[in-house]
Write a structure and sequence with these properties.
The complex is a heterodimer of chains A (341) and B (553). Chain A has 341 residues and is an all-alpha fold. Chain A has 2 domains: 126 residues, no CATH class; 211 residues, MetI-like (MetI-like fold). Chain A is 77% helix and 0% strand. Chain A has 15 helices and no strands. The two termini of chain A are 14 Å apart. Chain B is α/β, with parallel strands linked by helices. Among the domains of chain B are: 75 residues, no CATH class; 270 residues, 3-Layer(aba) Sandwich (Rossmann fold). Chain B is built from 21 helices and 20 strands. The longest helix of chain B is centred in the last third of the chain and has 18 residues. Chain B is globular and about 70 Å long. Chain B starts with a strand and ends with a helix. Classes of the chains: A mainly alpha (341), B alpha/beta (553).
Chain lengths: 341, 553
């Protein structure tokens, strides 16, 4: 087996204890939550006996360790249990809602990168110019305006005042049908289906919430790009490259940018994780049927299976994300390939 | 070929414009090698950056003319400059590892230059890059083509930088401190190689260095710079043997050389009388079969493979060797920051190797064994004032407080020649020499009997080095300390040491009285070290006090 492949496999193997830890912690934490689901689901008119019946039906009368083993056993068979509030298997709920959140987050990140990275590079190259000042203003505005505020502001301007944007009610206007499900991403599914009309309808719904999130994520990316570009540009190898007569573009992109990319990728990973958590507010404002609003609803009613499912899904997503970032490091920086043993 | 007339370079800073170069004029003929010599801040590097027009942000040529083969370099367009850089004028830099793009294969970096100047096409770039590597005498260039800078040694990286600079056959090579930070034998190899290549190709070159001896050996003509001005120019030998300007004379005198004494490094009018001093024959520290093995990725690394030596009371022992020879590991073990794998460190009969390094900080002998670190800047806490730095060991280990503490700090400052009004300053407000004094004052605060000096002057300008070496010599005579002086520079070691130990690959290859090892080296490695040191032209000593000084020491 080749060395890089072994390094990758070793890195994947390292995620196993992390996932196990997440399973345990999410189980213990949900049990530590205040509130009794049996009381909630027995209804307002329930007496002691019917509450007890619900408790037995939910398996909550068992000792904690027993509950954990039942849960772990089900988990190994891919059964996340049923949500008691929606009545559906948690796996089905997540499969419905996770793509909605991912589509929103990824689009937001793409927009943010497309603006922030060129902006950061330009701000570093023309330090002190108007681009640099624009970068500073955008960064400050991006971090200081909360997402629910920018979301509402955008709705007010583009939906209410200008009437350009569609009503902020979910992923698709009710006059359209959902595209046949392949990936769960409406944009991709509608293209696969060959239905440009639905594609544009979904895109129009997506633009405002994605922009809201992008404004928020843009700040750290632009800032890190600017800072790491400045560091790279003042380094010795850039002087060597300039003294050797390399063209401006080659020095900037071939030498400085690639070196500056490493901290930017790190930031991207961090931004992605906190955005996945932070888009609960955006989902609420835009009535987006995502995973964030699902988790909040489940939390309110102590819906154990749903919360555990959510935490587990997020953890797996983070583990996967970190893996992708680590692997992209090794593509960018040869020095890491040797350290990653 | 190159003509610089009244060149002035200024930098815009927050505190107004700073003139780095104040109207210098230089001529360079075809095939000539010019050395620009000066200490830090003299403007020698800025001059070269200015004529390449690669000054840092805020820097610009404020006056004067720079003409290269009839081209006005000051007014040439950026596009024209790009064709000149690399193809007509090339540069090599200090710190070769940082001068190469860390994440690009060295072969590709050479290809970038070749293709930029249309010296190669996509098809033959690789072949030509390998040829460029072969030209700088790199073994197995086909394999090295795929190496990244971090996989190569410093000397190898500098060869790559030279290959990069010479890839497009420029006619002028500017070398900016090309060997600073390299081992002395590597320095010689790199300098010899670049000199050979320059001769072969009939190029002109400019060598920018702080090392007058190196410049005198490799250059036809020298220009000595101070504070942005040229104070003296002339043929290398004449400048070195018979310096006209006062500053040049001071530089020449401060350059350590085989025939110098520690006092003779100082300007003639600033030499305090020698302090009479003889070390005793009583052993203070005995090292017996000391070993250190690290667990490496590819099996154990034997850094120190069983060394034994003795340091007598009041004696000064030099530990010499190149990077990787185990001298730093040895000094870390002796100062008890690192535990030896095997062996004994007998200090006045007690085996210190038995006391784990973590516990030695509280041991009563901690104050007896102290260290002066190589980098005066990095070894001082940037948030502590000079006074706090010196007071730290007194407070922690001697338990001094209040007035007694303040008085002792002032006494130490006076002893090390640090003006008392500087005690409230922070390290970044002090000069290199002042920081070195703070480091020494801190180390001698607890009246140690054994002081380990780890290249204490390596980062200093020669004139400051001369002062610090004299300070160390005087302190030893006044306080009766023993020194272990770790250095790669034999000429510095001989000035201060009674005995010399030469290490290579973790073993002692030669040991003996300093004069004997220097004048009649037995081991081939010692001979290689001695012959690699720059050999400036002979000159008549102004003060023939060598013998007197030796008897005094």
């Amino acid at each position: 087996m080749s060395a890089p492949l072994r390094a990758v496999l070793w890195r994947i193997l390292q995620t196993v204890p992390v996932v196990f830890g997440v399973v345990v912690i999410s189980f213990v934490l949900t049990r530590a939550l205040p509130g009794d689901p049996a009381v909630y689901f027995a209804g307002a008119m329930a007496d002691e006996q019917s509450i007890e019946e619900v408790r037995v039906a939910l398996g909550l009368d068992q000792p904690l360790w027993r509950q954990f083993f039942l849960y772990a056993g089900d988990l190994l068979q891919g059964d996340l249990g049923n949500s008691i509030s929606t009545g559906q298997p948690v796996l089905t709920d997540l499969a419905m809602r996770l793509p909605a959140s991912l589509e929103l987050t990824l689009t937001a990140l793409l927009i943010a990168c497309a603006i922030a990275i060129p902006l950061g590079v330009l701000a570093a190259v023309r330090q002190g110019s108007w681009v640099d000042h624009l970068c500073r203003v955008l960064v400050t505005a991006g971090v200081s305006l909360p997402t629910f505020f920018t979301g509402i502001l955008l709705i007010y301007v583009f939906y209410y005042l200008l009437g350009i944007a569609p009503s902020p009610l979910g992923r698709l206007d009710f006059i359209y049908f959902e595209p046949p499900r392949v990936t769960g991403f409406y944009l991709i599914d509608s293209l696969i289906d060959g239905d440009p009309e639905t594609f544009f309808a979904a895109l129009r719904q997506l633009i405002l919430p994605a922009t809201t999130l992008a404004l928020f994520t843009l700040a750290p990316i632009a800032r890190m790009t600017r800072a790491s570009m400045l560091t790279a540009l003042s380094s010795d190898y850039i002087r060597t490259a300039r003294a050797a007569g390399l063209s401006g573009a080659m020095v900037l992109f071939g030498y400085a940018f690639r070196n500056a990319l490493l901290p930017v990728v790190t930031t991207l990973g961090m931004v992605f994780s906190f955005v996945l958590g932070a888009n609960v507010l955006v989902e609420k404002v835009f009535a987006w049927p995502g995973i964030g609003s699902y988790a909040v609803e489940a939390l309110v009613v102590s819906d154990y299976a749903a919360i555990q499912g959510f935490v587990l899904a997020m953890a797996l997503l983070f583990v996967f994300l970190n893996l992708v970032i680590d692997l992209s490091y090794t593509l960018i920086d040869p020095r890491i390939r040797f350290a990653a043993k | 070929m190159l003509s610089i007339k009244d060149l002035a370079v200024g930098f815009r800073t927050r505190r107004g414009e700073v003139q780095a170069v104040r109207g210098i004029s230089l001529e360079l003929a075809k095939g000539e090698t010019l050395g620009i010599v000066g200490e830090s801040g003299s403007g020698k590097s800025v001059t070269s950056f200015a004529l390449m027009r690669i000054l840092d942000a805020g820097g610009s040529i404020t006056a004067g003319e720079v003409t290269y083969s009839g081209i006005d370099l000051r007014r040439a367009s950026e596009k024209d400059m790009r064709t000149i850089r690399g193809r007509e004028i090339s540069m090599i830099f200090q710190n070769p590892r940082a001068a190469l793009n860390p994440i690009r294969k060295v072969g590709h970096q050479i290809e970038d230059v070749l293709r930029q100047h249309a010296r190669a096409t996509r098809g033959d770039a690789r072949e030509k890059a390998i040829q460029a590597l072969r030209d700088v005498r790199i073994n197995n260039p086909e394999a090295r083509y795929h190496a990244y800078p971090f996989e190569l040694s410093g000397g190898m990286c500098q060869r790559i930088v030279i290959a990069l600079a010479l890839a497009c056959d420029p006619r002028l090579l500017i070398a900016d401190e090309p060997t600073t930070g390299l081992d002395i034998t590597t320095q010689k190899a790199v300098m010899d190689l670049s000199q050979e290549l320059i001769r072969e190709r009939g190029m002109a070159s400019i060598l920018i260095t702080h090392d007058l001896g190196l410049a005198a050996q490799y250059c036809d003509r020298l220009a000595v710079m101070k504070d942005g001005e040229i104070v003296e120019t002339g043929p290398a030998e004449a400048v070195f043997a018979n310096p006209q300007h006062d500053y040049t004379r001071r530089l020449v005198e401060a350059t350590p050389r085989p025939d110098a004494s520690v006092r003779s490094l100082l300007p003639a009018d600033r030499r305090p009388p020698e302090i009479d001093y003889t070390p005793s024959d009583q052993p203070l520290l005995e090292v017996r079969d000391l070993r250190k093995t690290y667990a490496g990725k590819a099996g154990p690394v034997h850094a120190v493979k069983g060394i034994s030596f003795t340091v007598n009371q009041g004696q000064s022992v030099g530990l010499v060797g190149e990077s990787g020879c185990g001298k730093s590991t040895t000094s870390s073990m002796l100062v008890r920051l690192l535990d030896p794998t095997e062996g004994q460190i007998l200090y006045q009969g007690n085996d210190l190797a038995q006391i784990p390094a973590e516990q030695f900080g509280k041991h009563p002998l901690r104050g007896d064994i102290q260290m002066v670190f190589q980098d005066a800047t990095d070894s001082l806490n940037p948030r502590h004032s000079a006074g706090d730095c010196i007071a730290e060991p007194l407070r922690r280990l001697a338990g001094l407080r209040g007035k007694a503490l303040r008085e002792r700090v002032e006494e130490l400052a006076e002893l090390t020649g640090l003006p008392a009004n500087l005690l409230s300053r922070f390290p970044h407000q002090l000069s290199g020499g002042q920081k070195a004094r703070v480091g020494i004052a801190r180390a001698i605060a607890l009246d140690p009997k054994f002081l380990i000096l780890d290249e204490p002057t390596a980062a200093l300008d020669v004139s400051i080095q001369a002062v610090i070496l004299n300070l160390l010599a005087d302190l030893r005579a006044r306080l009766g300390m023993s020194y272990l002086f770790v250095s790669h520079d034999l000429n510095v070691v001989r000035l201060l040491c009674d005995e010399v130990i030469v290490m290579q690959d973790g073993v002692i290859v030669e040991a003996g009285p300093a004069e004997q090892v220097m004048s009649a080296p037995q081991h081939p490695y010692t001979r290689a070290l001695l012959s690699a040191a720059p050999r400036p032209p002979e000159r008549v000593l102004v003060t023939p006090t060598l013998r007197e000084v030796q008897s005094a020491l």
